[in-house]
Hints:
The complex is a heterodimer. Chain A is of the alpha/beta class. Chain A has helices at 59-70, 93-99, 102-105, 117-134, 146-163, 182-189, 207-213, 236-245, 278-281, 342-378, 408-417, 445-463, 467-471, 484-489, 499-504; strands at residues 138-140, 172-176, 193-197, 218-224, 249-253, 273-275, 296-298, 310-314, 317-321, 383-384, 394-397, 424-425, 435-437. In chain A, the strands form 3 sheets. In chain A, strands 1-7-6-5-4-2-3 form a 7-stranded mixed beta sheet, with helices on both faces. Chain A has a 4-stranded antiparallel beta sheet with strand order 10-11-13-12. Chain A has a two-stranded antiparallel sheet with strand order 8-9. In chain A, helix 6 (182-189) links the parallel strand 2 (172-176) and strand 3. In chain B, the strands form 3 sheets. In chain B, strands 1-7-6-5-4-2-3 form a 7-stranded mixed beta sheet, with helices on both faces. In chain B, strands 10-11-13-12 form a 4-stranded antiparallel beta sheet. A two-stranded antiparallel sheet of chain B has the order 8-9. In chain B, helix 6 runs parallel beside helix 11 (330-366) and helix 11 crosses helix 14. The chains are: A alpha/beta, B alpha/beta.
Amino acid sequence: MSEKTTFTGHRGLDHEEQLIFERGRDAACGVDLPAPEGVATRLGGMERKGGVGLPGLSEPEVVRHFVRLSQKNYAIDAGFYPLGSCTMKHNPRLNEKMARLPGFSDVHPLQPTSTVPGALELMSELARWLMELTGMPAVAMSPKAGAHGELCGLMAIRAALEARGEAGTRTRVLVPESAHGTNPATAAACGFTVDAIPATQDGRVDLAAFEAKLGDDVAGIMLTNPNTCGLFERDIRKIADAVHEHGGYFYCDGANFNAIVGRVKPGDLGVDAMHINLHKTFSTPHGGGGPGAGPVVLSDALAPFAPLPYVTSTGGELKLVEDEQSSDADPFGRMVAFHGQMGMFVRALSYMMSHGSDGLRQVAEDAVLNANYVLASLKDVMTASFEGPCMHEALFDDRFLKGTGVETLDFAKAMIDEGYHPMTVYFPLVVHGAMLIEPTETESKETLDEFIGCMADLARSAKAGDKARFENAPELTPRRRLDETTAARKPVLRWTPPAPAQAAE
Amino acid sequence: MRYLPLTPDDRQQMLGVIGAKSMDDLFVDVPEAARIEHAFDLPPHQGELEVDRALSAMAEKNTAAGSVPFFVGAGAYKHHVPSSVDHLIQRSEFLTSYTPYQPEISQGTLQYLFEFQTQVALLTGMDVANASMYDGSTACSEAVQMAHRVTRRNKAVLSGNLHPHYRAVIETTSKFAGDAVVALEADVSGREDIASQIDGDTSCVVIQYPDFFGHVGDLADIAAAAHAEGALLIVAIPEIVSMGALRTPGEMGADIVVAEGQSIGNALNYGGPYVGLFATRQKYVRQMPGRLCGETEDVDGKRGYVLTLSTREQHIRREKATSNICTNSGLCCLAFTIHLALLGEKGFTRLAALNHESACKLAGALEKVSGVELLTPAFFNEFTIRTSKPAADVIEALADKGILGGVPASRLMPGNDAVSDLIIVAATEVNTDQDRAAYAAALTEVLS
Lengths: 505, 448
């Protein structure tokens, strides 16, 4: 690779971009605001003394800064993003347009409810879709992310146990080893102890080990289905029944609902609570890591404990219930100020309506078909961890790299030079050197064929001993491999003025 | 089905490669009884025009804040957001990217998170900040959990003038974690004696600034009282624009500052998505919840950024993690960072001054109305009035006249008779002289 040095440090269109704090002039400003008229203040002597320390920049400088930063990011709109367990699918811009209608974006959570009937209607309509698609009788809308939804589900379970007078005795939650890391963290945050269930050779919950752990102190199980190995838990009905027979509840992590939407109703599987990541299944954009939204569908047993606030419908009239006094049920409390991620609700409903009941079924089928196509096409080149069929993601591991000196991480970094965002690596933990590929339903066969070709080329290259291609990768990116160890050992989490500037103050 | 690229031919070919006869073969692990063959009770797919029409009809039933004289606050605020903010956050490379797990191709997200963390630390007067939480209320609850970890105690003392929703979120979390909460009664006079509640079991004191009724006051005494007992002071700021005019909690001795960042760059969105700000002292960095972005170098020695200190997080420590949070409000942080970059020092302090001035003018106009008493002598952009008629009725009557005049305290404190005649009123830079005059005139009619 030629490493031409430039005078500026820029490389063609790839600009070196300083921090905003290293630019700017005190007097500059990117907004025009009128000067205050100077009426007497009523700050009670609490006036700020001294400046904040923000740089002054004009509007064009700010625009250029952030456009240049954007150009250092990979994105689903720019290319294939097969990040397993994260579900990076096409984000329709219609959804963005709808979320920005002033009637949705410019309404305040505490303005009189008489002035927001359309907002209540939207929440109620989205809830109807979620309940119908999951076959569940109730939904809690306010959780702000998948992990927040998990917390909601476990709190509802805890509240139900309290109502039964068993909160003190049922303290153990069973969590399979392959669970998302948030599952055990959530159970612990809710005051439960976590008991891990091992996986079988075929990547599923070990039924015998699970049954051996059941007892009067079990509050419930947290199971991900389809699971993090990309597989459907065949014994899910048995697991649900066994947990119920022993007096526990069944929490299903619904992060992977997009694999079964329109084909399977979780309500038919014996689920008591399941969160739905609207951003994954219903395409609200991930936005660099958030915001998400995690409504939780609930069974009849848990529905009365759903948190505040919620929308009810009596004779077609919608009402917002915000406090315990006005509630007919037994809400376990409030998880968040206000009503949840309204902006995400609009986007998700827009996506659902665009697909309709017929299209959502096709979503699951195409997501599963694409994953199995990748699995079938690469299983002789890479090593598939489990026998197929898989659901919406295909799991490989590093056995095919044995003896090459190339690690999973190196393989992933080499994909970057080929123009791909790497798949998820080292997760799930149950297989060594995991590589989890999730194509999603919005990728064409042509895209998958190109990707499969690239993966095969890389695998051949590794086996042929071209170690340098992997060890040095990526080479064609705005930054090459970064020193994460020093970043963690000596954390620098903010900009501080350089020493001479401090001395001058 | 415009979002689905596969053709029927593609599907057949792909099934052939897989060695499956039909789609059903791929769902073979699903118990037969649970396979849905019938249609759902939901409409079929619709075109862009039809969806637009249906959702627009719903949106039009709502009264948008920008369409009326608007004075509603209590934790979310109507501000002007420059056009370039929304344009920039909709750039594909920001909007449609994921968590920056591969830093080499995510420097855009990582660098703005680093800038965001710096801005939040500067605004709050603290050493360090994280890459955001869901919103102000969840940030506040996480702060309490963090204080428990730092002090190895588990009793939180909450000011009665903490936003009732923030209080409720803390109470919910604490109830399930088995922690204790001592919450004072709301005190519209702003003179509650919180120091007397602190003892050797107290892990933290949570106080709002400006408080729920709008009062601003010095926090140094309460910080000293907390520290004297080995407790931390947590300060919650629902209106972050106030930091352009007021002394920071950092300089008054706060240990953790949480705030709602919606005011900068983000729309009202009927309650979300919002952006929780979280800042603390350097010595507590490793106890902070949430994502963190840190500076480092790449193998060529070039400065770059990575997510860091993930050993605190759920995907490493599982049930021992500092919290179960595995996300941040990335795009909302970006909007915040861009808007604040546009404002800069001059714009931010001026925006704060304009907000305060707008509130002073409004308070001046409303306190002249017969039947109105101003209860907040010192405030930023929000204050409380007592009205001669029940506040909830007054707000409805104002809404009928096309004015959204604030939040009746009774909506957030149901069952508390002492607040039934209180309205919390917010003013910002978007209010005009005409808006304020219209409010005063309408209130005069309603109270007469």
